Amino acid sequence: MKKVITLVAAIMLLVTSTLALAGCGGTKTLEEYVNSDSDVQQELSDLESSLGTGGSISVKENNIKLIYKYDQTFDEATATAMKPQLEQAMNSMESQFQGMIDDLKEDSGIDDVSMTIVYQDANGTELYSNTYQ
Questions:
Q1: Where is the signal peptide (predicted)?
Q2: What is the pTM of this model?
Q3: Residue 107 contacts by C-beta under 8 Å, 6 or more apart in sequence?
Q4: Is the dihedral of CA 7, 24, 21, 96 positive or negative?
Q5: What is the mean pLDDT of residues 107-130?
Q6: Strands 126-132 and 56-60, bridge-based pairing
Q7: pLDDT tens digits along 13-66
């Protein structure tokens, strides 16, 4: 589990750095910016491929969404047991995520940036999600 959390943190740092360094210019949303810049699109695509099978990164309006998909399915009892562990792990990283979002807000000039992290099993069943603003 620590490996996944470290991977998520590293990827989100790279995503935030990529968008922040490029700046959003005259665009109104992160989505508009990403759609207008092929270099950022390629960077996000490269980062998405590092998530493994089924993982994805998307930008909609001002939200960066990262989905980490486990390559196995879990029965209900296991999924229920995993949720508090994932929540605790993500809560311990909340200040990191908040720092990334704050930096992105400052660098882009967009005030309502958010980041959603979702964990799913191989069937797409959500195990945990949280949005940081």
A1: 1-22
A2: 0.77
A3: 19, 20, 21, 23
A4: negative
A5: 90
A6: unpaired
A7: 556 555 555 555 566 888 887 788 788 788 878 878 887 778 899 999 999 999
Tokens of 132: 């940081």
Sorted by where each starts, the structural domains of the chain and their CATH numbers stand as 2-132 (3.30.300)
Q: What are phi and psi of 64, to 5 degrees?
A: -95, 125
Residue type, 3: K
pLDDT band at 80 (very low <50, low <70, confident <90, very high): very high
State the CB neighbour count (10 A cutoff) for residue 12. 22
Nearest to 15 by CA among 104, 95, 88: 104
